[in-house]
């Protein structure tokens, strides 16, 4: 591995410190190298805060000579005024000799303009270092700007014989649990890493989920509920004050506190209408947690990027609600306590 790739890998490591703190901005890390030594590091810490390049440069003395240094950053430095001034202007001001970048920014506000500005100032620019890895790091950001929709993660748990629930539903809900405690913690960790989580009406009625992060530390995702006929009562946990809740319905209704309503036409392209609205709201990632009809619709429309399927290999329901139809053979799998976690990337969405 060449030195540039090692420095870029360090940028990726730094960038990950901003997971869920910087959304809807991308995760960005930066290192500054003099000779072969890293002399400064920085990352984007929170939305609205200083960018990675600024934090790295500001970690040095104000009069430090950067004219013979190389700056490594996993995403093209910005060239526009947003919540902070353009990073490219600071790099030019500091007379940095060379900038090495993993990915060109997909945001149309930047989209090559930062690179152009640096080159016009006489700075050497190299791009494409570990480009594939950089895109995976910021898969949410790139999907949002390139496909005009959030990054979609399908998630469900199923028994060894392919059911997500008993039918009829047992009075004791614990009889319907499929996964172990370790898998439940993994799900809560997933929730903490994404901006939003979506379920349908029947899932709320049958399970009364809160859809929050309780088993790990982190932010609660925005809750998205499909309630065509406004059947759901305010007593359901998804309407408590723990997180913002967005309800998609056929009726107009005034928002109340942390609950907002969006009227859509349920007779055509429901998923696309929802994703279009989420794009307007700047929501870059969503976990779809059920139920089966909702998950199956995302699969049918091929509007998904990855799936996380937890399988209890020892539990069988024999009859019940069938799991969504997705081929789990020849895909990446790992242990999750007593369960098996299948992770599937949608090759058609890459």
Describe this structure in words.
The protein is α/β, with parallel strands linked by helices and 350 residues long. Helix 3 (87-93) packs parallel to helix 4. It starts with a helix and ends in a 5-residue tail after the last strand. It has a nine-stranded mixed beta sheet, with helices on both faces. Strands 2-1-3-4-5 form a five-stranded mixed beta sheet, sandwiched between helices. A two-stranded antiparallel sheet has the order 7-14. It is built from ten helices and 16 strands. The model has no long low-confidence stretch (mean pLDDT 95). The longest helix is centred in the first third of the chain and has 13 residues, at 3-15. It has helices at 3-15, 52-58, 87-93, 113-120, 131-137, 139-147, 181-193, 201-207, 270-280, 292-300, and strands at residues 29-34, 37-43, 69-75, 98-103, 124-126, 151-159, 163-165, 196-199, 222-226, 245-249, 259-263, 285-290, 306-312, 321-322, 332-336, 339-345. The chain is elongated.
């Amino acid at each position: 591995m060449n030195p540039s790739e090692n420095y870029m890998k360090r940028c990726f490591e730094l960038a990950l410190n901003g997971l869920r703190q910087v959304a809807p901005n991308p995760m960005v890390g930066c290192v500054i190298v003099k000779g072969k030594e890293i002399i400064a590091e920085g990352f984007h810490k929170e939305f609205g805060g200083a960018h990675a390049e600024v934090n790295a440069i500001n970690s040095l003395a104000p009069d430090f000579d950067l004219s013979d240094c190389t700056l490594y950053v996993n995403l093209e430095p910005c060239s526009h005024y947003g919540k902070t001034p353009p990073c490219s202007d600071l790099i030019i001001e500091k007379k940095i000799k060379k900038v090495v970048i993993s990915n060109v920014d997909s945001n149309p506000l930047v989209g090559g303009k930062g690179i152009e500005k640096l080159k016009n100032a006489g700075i050497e620019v190299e791009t494409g270092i570990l480009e594939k890895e950089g895109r995976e790091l910021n898969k949410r950001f790139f999907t949002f700007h390139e496909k005009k929709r959030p990054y979609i993660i399908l998630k469900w748990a199923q028994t060894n014989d392919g059911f997500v629930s008993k039918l009829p539903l047992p009075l004791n809900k614990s009889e319907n649990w499929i996964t172990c405690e370790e898998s439940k913690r993994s799900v809560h960790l997933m929730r903490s890493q994404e901006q939003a989580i979506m379920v349908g009406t029947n899932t709320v009625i049958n399970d009364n989920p809160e859809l929050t992060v309780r088993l790990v530390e982190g932010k609660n995702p925005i809750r998205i509920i499909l309630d065509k006929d406004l059947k759901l009562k305010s007593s359901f946990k998804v309407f408590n004050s723990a997180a913002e809740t967005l309800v998609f319905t056929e009726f107009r209704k005034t928002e109340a506190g942390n609950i907002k309503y969006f009227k859509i036409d349920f007779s055509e392209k429901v998923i696309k209408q929802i994703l279009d609205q989420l794009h307007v709201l700047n929501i870059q990632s969503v976990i779809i947690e059920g139920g089966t009809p909702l998950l199956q619709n995302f699969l049918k429309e091929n509007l998904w990027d990855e799936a996380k399927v937890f399988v209890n290999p020892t539990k069988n329901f024999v009859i019940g609600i069938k799991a969504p139809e997705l081929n789990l053979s020849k895909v990446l799998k790992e242990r999750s306590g007593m369960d098996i976690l299948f992770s599937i990337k949608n090759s058609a969405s890459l």
